[in-house]
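Lecture notes, continued. The same structure-token format from the folding unit now serves as the input rather than the output. Read the line below as a description of shape only.
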């Protein structure tokens, strides 16, 4: 657990998302401008070479743990809604794997 790479806050998430994708000025973020491939965000986190799991954390405390290899193979997107909230969507997967209100990512 000590080796987890984290983005623990919404402000840090803003910074990380803006590093890897285009960010539109607030208060409105369009669906294109607010969409970043999850693999790009993971790369920006620079996880340790031995990392095997990705944990997505929602603002309601929901945690979804996924295989890092499976996430890298998926077309998952981090989408920013007009109100600034984020969700991770996995096209072709059931919505139960999606995380609403994304506030953190851990790579272990």
């Amino acid at each position: 657990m000590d080796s987890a790479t984290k983005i623990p806050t919404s402000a840090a998430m803003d910074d990380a998302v803006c590093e890897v994708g285009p960010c539109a000025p607030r208060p409105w973020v369009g669906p294109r401008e607010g969409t970043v491939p999850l693999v790009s965000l993971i790369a920006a986190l620079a996880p340790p070479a031995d990392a095997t799991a990705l944990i997505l954390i929602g603002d309601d405390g929901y945690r979804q743990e996924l295989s890092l290899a499976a996430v890298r193979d998926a077309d998952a997107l981090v989408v920013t809604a007009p109100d600034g909230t984020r969700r991770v969507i996995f096209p072709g997967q059931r919505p139960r794997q999606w995380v609403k209100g994304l506030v953190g990512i851990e790579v272990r």
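Point for the exam: The chain is about 25% helix and 30% strand.
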